[in-house]
Amino acid sequence: MFTKFEEYAANQMLGQPDSPPRASGKLYFSEEWQRTVFGMAMALSKEGHFEWEDFRQKLIQSIAAWERDACGGQTTWDYYDRYAMALMAVLEEYGVIEAGEVASLAAMS
Amino acid sequence: MSALFEYDDDREIASAAKVRALEALLIKKGVLGSDSVDTVLRHFETVAGSFNGARIVARAWVDPAYKQRLLDDTPKAIAELNFPLGMDGAEGEHMKAVANTPETHNLIICTLCSCYPWPVLGLPPYWYKDPVFRSRGVREPRAVLKEFGVPIAPEREVKVWDSSAQIRWFVVPERPAGSEHLSEDELAELITPEAMMGVALVPSPKVA
CA within 20 to 30 Å of B13's CA: A43, B82, B178, B204, which one? Predict the structure, then answer.
């Protein structure tokens, strides 16, 4: 149905638990890093580094894990936080990055 | 109580740092091109979106002959406007515009899947795939429209257009009163995706 990967990928999420924030027909990002992480996942899957559906399942799991957290200890909801976690998980699963690689880089920066 | 709504700045900074580190790592590994992120997002930000639909509607408002061509052969009339490449792909081929008039109000829904004219309306809103909206839109469109803040007078006909893989509908809303002095670009600014779905009216421009 969709000829563009971008539209196919976004459409898979709409109306589902991993549906991305949007406003007035556009994706909604409140911070630049959110735009970056959204675009990275889509670009990497488009280039064949992982199956989009595998990433989506990680994202759905990551959202469900947040929802299961006890109210008292729950971190503030941020869709793109869950999104970043899911992207790192799928990249590790596909062997694109190694566990801990990002954390050690982020700690140095 | 206010603590409930406090945002954790540290976490925001940590997330941003993590994403930047990941991006740098992937570029270094040669997995991600330095412009890959912008390339995929360009699709949503400048290629396919409601800004296209707004341009089409604004042109139809200022040019009655164009409006007629748009209603007669939508893809052909859209092609006249020289949109960026990708806008006229398979998603655009089956589009059909319907115009609101004093006698008729149009509403687009999709009862089967979630067909939506992406190239002109962008990403559908949250409720578009909601089964309740879909079924009520068919059964009681006037009640649904009233809830959206668009009450339709009893003498005015409501037409519901069910989008499908074959035809993706969008609405040419009525030009608001008091907009006579606006340029085509200024008119386009007034037009929302909701107005082109038929669940909103285009408001009159604010008097400066």
Answer: A43
